[in-house]
């Protein structure tokens, strides 16, 4: 088990990571939209950025915790921040859908295509598929004891990849060169976190299947 110093350092690091990642998301958005949303069309991109940022932090926190042999009980942390993620992933498309409908563009998927253009159909599809997976994941989170939960975890990984490319294509913050590079870094770290989890699962299954010598 890690020492108290390491535990306190990791705890501080997790808090600092929130300030840095969420702060950079807000800074990138503010650089483009002027630091305060003047319309609903200004607000919804920020909510999407914050949602991805929080989920990305979840992946990093879980990976660090696995590396230190579950030094922390992250159950409460994931529960509380999970509510924030759920609210953000509902409000992000919800505000856009309502705004487009109010302004006479109709309902999805037609309203989406009217807003972003037909050249972005794949990005819209990726975002919609990821949204369905995320919502399903959040609502069946209480069913972790069921046998299909590992499938949901894998689908959540797929959804993170879909939303990564969705934002890469449609995200206005991607127009900032520094944030585009940061986004690529986020993608790389995400892949490493998933690979680490799969490796730990493989190790655990390998140890459990290895017969104990007498």
Distance between the termini: 28 Å
Number of separate helices: 7
User: Which whole number gives the mean pLDDT?
Assistant: 82
Largest sheet: none
Approximate strand percentage: under 5%
Structural class comes to mainly alpha
Total beta-strand segments: 0
Shape category: globular
Helix content: over 70%
State the domain count.
1
Low-confidence stretches: none
Question: What's the order of the H and E elements?
Answer: HHHHHHH
Rg of Cα set:
19 Å
Report on this structure.
- The model has no long low-confidence stretch (mean pLDDT 82).
- Helix 3 (75-102) crosses helix 5 (121-139).
- The chain has 214 residues and is mainly alpha-helical.
- The longest helix has 33 residues, at 177-209.
- It is built from 7 helices and no strands.
- It is globular.
- The protein has one domain.
- The chain has helices spanning 4-33, 40-67, 75-102, 110-116, 121-139, 149-170, 177-209.
What does this entry show, briefly?
The protein has helices at residues 4-33, 40-67, 75-102, 110-116, 121-139, 149-170, 177-209. The chain is an all-alpha fold. The longest helix is centred in the last third of the chain and has 33 residues, at 177-209.
């Amino acid at each position: 088990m890690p020492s108290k110093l390491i535990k306190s350092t990791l705890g501080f690091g997790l808090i600092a990571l929130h300030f840095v990642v969420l702060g950079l998301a807000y800074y990138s958005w503010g650089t483009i939209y002027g630091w305060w949303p003047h319309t609903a069309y200004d607000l919804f991109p920020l909510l999407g950025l914050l949602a991805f940022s929080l989920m990305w932090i979840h992946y990093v926190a879980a990976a660090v915790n696995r590396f230190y042999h579950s030094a922390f009980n992250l159950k409460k942390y994931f529960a509380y921040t999970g509510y924030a993620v759920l609210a953000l992933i509902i409000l992000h498309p919800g505000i856009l859908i309502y705004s487009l409908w109010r302004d006479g563009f109709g309902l999805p998927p037609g309203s989406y295509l009217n807003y972003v253009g037909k050249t972005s159909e794949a990005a819209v599809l990726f975002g919609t598929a990821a949204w369905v997976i995320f919502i399903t994941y959040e609502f069946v989170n209480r069913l972790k004891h069921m046998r299909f939960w590992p499938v949901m975890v894998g689908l959540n990984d797929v959804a993170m990849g879909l939303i990564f490319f969705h934002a890469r294509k449609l995200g206005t913050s991607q127009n900032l060169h520094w944030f585009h590079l940061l986004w690529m870094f986020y993608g790389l770290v995400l892949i490493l976190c998933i690979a680490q989890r799969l490796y730990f699962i493989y190790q655990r299954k390998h140890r459990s299947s290895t017969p104990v010598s007498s």
